[in-house]
Amino acid sequence: MIRWIARLIGFAFVVVLLWALGSNLKAYFQSPPPATAEHEFHKEPKELHLASNGPFGRFDKQQLQRGFQVYKEVCSGCHSLNRVAFRDLHALGYNEAEVKAIANQWPTEVASINPETGEPATRKAIPSDYFPSPYANETAGRAANNNALPPDLSLMAKAREGGAAYIYSLLTGYQNQPAALLKEFPTAKTPAGLHYNPYFANLNLAMPQPLTSEGQVTYAPGNPKPTVDQMAKDVAAFLVWTAEPNLQGRHKAGWPVILFLIVATILAYLSYRNIWAEAKRKVAPVGPMDPANKAKRTRASKKAGIDE
Amino acid sequence: MSFAWAKPYEPKTELGRWMDERMPLPRLVFNAVGGGYPVPRNLNYGWNFGVLSGIFLTIQIITGIVLAMWYFSSADGAFTSVEHIMRDVNAGWMMRYAHANGASFFFIVVYIHIFRGLYYGSYKAPRELVWMLGLVIYLLMMATAFMGYVLPWGQMSYWGAQVITGFFSAFPLVGEPIRIWLLGGYAPDQATLTRFFSLHYLLPFVIAGVVILHIWSLHIPGSGNPTGVDVKSEKDTLPFHPFYTAKDGWFAAAFLTIYAAVVFFAPNSLGHPDNYIPANPLATPAHIVPEWYFWPFYAILRAFTADFILPAKLWGVLAMFASILLLFFLPWLDKSPVRSGAYRPVFRRFFWLLVVDVLILGWCGGSPATPFFVALSEIASAYYFAHFLIILPLVSKYETPLPLPSSITASVLHGEEAEAAPIGQAAPAN
Predict the structure, then answer these.
(1) Any idea what DSSP says for residue A85?
(2) I need a surface site. Which of A137, A246, B42, B102 has the fewest CB within 10 A?
(3) ipTM score of the complex?
(4) Catalytic residue among B84, B219, B235, B241
(5) Which of A20, A154, A300 shows the shortest C-beta gap to B305?
C-alpha cells in the first residue's frame, strides 16, 4: 500500500518536473534569452597581493597609514566609516598625540548639543568618537549625490564578492565604454551621470572616478610613488583592516590552536593504535570492502560467468 | 542494555558504591558510552560521525550562549551588536566565527552521518525509530540554523527570512495568514527578530533532548555495522570504551583541526558577502541564496516552474517539504532484507548516483536561476524523487544481493572463503 502511494507521488513529481523542463526547453529554443552587456563585458576582479593575505598574513602598517591618508583626503568626502573609531588608529602605529590630532582636525565635526541651550550643535571629535559621517543623514547624502547614497566603507572589504581585490579593481577600472560594446548593444550606452566600469556588476556606476591622477595624495617621504594603482592598493589594504581589525590577531591565534590539535591528533592516534593492538584485535578493512577480498570475488565471479 | 555479555557496572570505590545506591548516574554513563555498551568490532570510519555531531552540537551551544551575552535582538541594534562582538569584545570574533562555521561543520557531519545510514541501510528494522528520531533532529537543526542566520540582520538574513516564510503563502487560503502569524507582521521586522532569537535559543535544547531519545533507541538493538549482519556472539563486539572512545577520539581531533583551520584562516569562505550589509527592506539583493546546507532543497523549490493543475509555487513548496518527509517512510520503501549496500550491487550504483544527484542539486541551488541551472535542477530533482519513491522499492524487489558473511567475526578475517565465493554460489570447499 505505502509503496503504491509512494510510486504515485513519485510519478506526480517526475511528470510535473519533466513537463516544466519540456516547456522551459521549448521556450528557450523558440526565443533564446538575449545576450546582455553585463554578461559579456563584466570582468572578475584583478589579482591583488596584500601583506594580510593568507594564513600567515600580517598588516603592513606603513601601507595602512597610506591607505588611511587616501581615505581621509579622497574617500571621506562622500563615504562614512562609522564602525571605526579614532582610537582604533593606534593599531596603525599612530601614537596617542597623533590620534588626538587626527580626531581634532577631522573636517566633519561630531553631532552634539549646546550644553547651555540644548540646541543641536557640533563639536570637534575626540579619540573615543567614531568617524563622523560626511552627511548629516541619508537624505542629505542622496541629495548631494544624484540620489545614489555613498555606502559606508567599514565592512566593504567583506561585503563584496572578491573583497579587497574587487575594491582595487573597481578603483583602477574606470574607462571609456568599449566600442565593441556599443556596437553590439547600442541601447546599453552608459546613461548620463553614471560611469562605465567593467568590474561593477551592471557596468555603470554612480561614483565618478575618485583616484584620477598621480600625486593626488602626497605620501610622506620614504613611501612608494602615489600612482593611481598604488593609492588604490593602499586604500584597499586599509579597508581590509577596517572590515576586520582583528584579522592579524586571528592569524596569530590560529597557529597555536592548529599545532595543538595536530599534536593531540597524533597522540590520540597512537593511543588508538595501542589500544586496538593490545587486545590483539586487528584493525582490518571489512569483508567485502577489503580490496583483496573484492579482487578475489570478482575473479571467481568472472570465472563462473556471473556479471557482478 | 543490549547484549547478555555486556559488562555489568561495578563501582570500584566506596564513593562510587554510595553514589550508585542513591543516584546511579555513573552506571548510566558506563552502560551508554562506557565499557558496558558492546559495539560491533568491524565499524569503519563512517560510524565516527554520530559522536562528531554530538561534539558540534556542544560547540554550538557553548559558543551560542556566550554570543547571546552580547547580542541584541533589536532590528536597529542587532547588526551593530554583532560588529561590536567582532571588533571590541575580547575573543568575540573567535566565538562568532566558531559559531557561524560550527553550523556549517555540524551540517557537514550530519550529512555524512545521514548518507552513511542510507548506504548501510541503518533505517531498516529494528532501527526505524533511530532513523526517524534522527530525521526529527535534522528538521530541528534546519529550523535552528535558518533562524540563527536571520539574527545578524544583514541583507541575506532579512531577505532569507522574507523568502522562506514566503513559502507558506503558496498554500491557498490559510497560507498568507500563517505567514503573517509566523512573522508577527506583514514583513520581517522587530517581532520576527525577537521570536527567532527566542526560538533559536530554545531549539538546541530540544535537539539535545531528541538526541537522548535517538541514542536510547539506538542502544536497544545496538549499533549497526558495515556488513549489516546481526551481532551473534560476544566475539562480534568490543566494549565502547576504550575501543571506540579511542577511535572517535583521534578522529574527532583530526576533524576539529580542519574546523579550526577554517575558523582561523578562512572564516567567511562558507558565508555570503551580502550578510555584511545591514538589512535594508528597500533594496533586494541580486541573488537571494540560503546557506549552502539548504541549497539542494532550494534547487528543488525552484525547479518547479510550470503550472500543472496546481500553481508552480505550490508544487515547489510541496516538493521541498516532501523531499525530506519521504525519508521518514524509507524503512517501508526499501524492503530488501539485506541492510548493507556493500552486498547490494544494484542498490549501490543507484546510491552513488543519488550522492552525485544531491551534489548537483546543491550546485544548482547555490547558482543564479539561469535557464541552464533551472533545467539541470529539474532533471536532478526528478531523479531525487524517482530514486526514493520508484527506483528504491523496485530495486529492493528484484535485486539479487551478494552472499552475506556468516558473522561479523568471519567478515573481519582476511581472505575468508565465503567472502571470495562467486555471487549466488556457496563457498568452495577446501
Answers:
(1) B
(2) A137
(3) 0.91
(4) B219
(5) A20
